[in-house]
Amino acid sequence: MLRKSIALVAAALALSLSSPAGADADAELNRARKLYSQGLTQEAAGDWAGALATFEDVARIKATPQVRFHVARCKEHLGRLNEALGGYRIAEYEAEQTGKEASLVEEVKKAREALEGRIPRLTIARGKGAEAIKIELDGVALGDTQIGQPITLDPGPHVLTGIVEQGKSFKRTITLAERDAVRIELDVPEDLAVPAAPPPAAKPAPGPEPRPAVPNRELPPPASGSPSAAPWIVGGLGVVSLATSAVFYSLRMKAEDDLDQGCIGRTCPDTLKGTQQNGETYAALSGVTLGLGIVGVGAGVLMLLGQKGPPEKAPAAALELTGRGGRVSFRGRF
Fold it and tell me: What is the per-residue pLDDT across 131-167, written as a single tens digit (0 to 9) for each?
């Protein structure tokens, strides 16, 4: 008996709690139906702003594909094409999911396709000096994936903002019309351009690996080859000078013999004056060439003695001068 009483009390309590809730839900649905009818009336009158507010109130109570379609339609007529396109796509998808809204799906699809061709597109590319700046479109920062790609926008003016660094920015206004496809390169003004950092110094190309250091050793003297020819040349010139001196000495002796035969004491006829002068000349030349010959032969000998290596057999040279005044002889090897 007690259990039955408790069950009855619980059932009564449940009814008392559920009934008002159910009544409120029905009231909300009735209100949504009235608002929906009001929105249709506003649409027919061309009051798109009023109709949008009414349909949005309906959507807060219950959002159906029909309600979403009318919200998107109002936004389209108010120039909010981007939002309208999104609304059409959601309404079309939800209508297809119910499987009972074939006519609505067709109506939404036609509206979406017609709207897609009217929406302008803007492509923003980084220009000179804008490689690393932050870019905002109508106050909203753009991500890297949006740079260089078409962005659908509503017709009308749009503001591009380039933020170079803290406290430095510039703006550019773009006005788009329906069906526009515009591409712009955003250049940083020269007065705001940040000086480019100098390029890093190029690393030198790797060269050959250094060879191990070779100990400093005294190099042996180069192997001596054939003795230099200079001593022989100098000595040879000396020998030639000696030979020339011998010739002049012989000519001098001959001149003296002629003078001895033609002169009496120190008195010579006029015809022998030339012979006398020639003899004096020969005597001077003989002395000069004799001195040069002796110097040349001596220098050649000293040069041969200064050379290293096995001495070579030098050619022999002999000179013997004989005249009335005496006999001069010279023998040696060069």
Answer: 989 999 999 999 999 999 999 999 999 999 999 987 8
Instruction: Specify the 3-state DSSP secondary structure of 279.
Output: helix
DSSP 180-195: -EEEEEEPPPGGGPPP
Residue spans of the domains in the chain: they are: 25-116, 121-192, 230-333
Residues in CB range of 210: below 8 A, 6 or more apart: none
What's the CATH number of domain 25-116, 1.10.10.10, 1.10.730.10, 1.10.3210.10, 1.25.40.10? 1.25.40.10
Amino acid at 224: S
Report the DSSP pairing between strands 121-126 and 156-165. Answer: unpaired
Which numeric CATH code is attached to 121-192?
2.60.40
pTM of the model: 0.50
Residues whose CB is less than 8 angstroms from the CB of residue 1 and which lie 6 or more positions away in sequence, other chains included: none
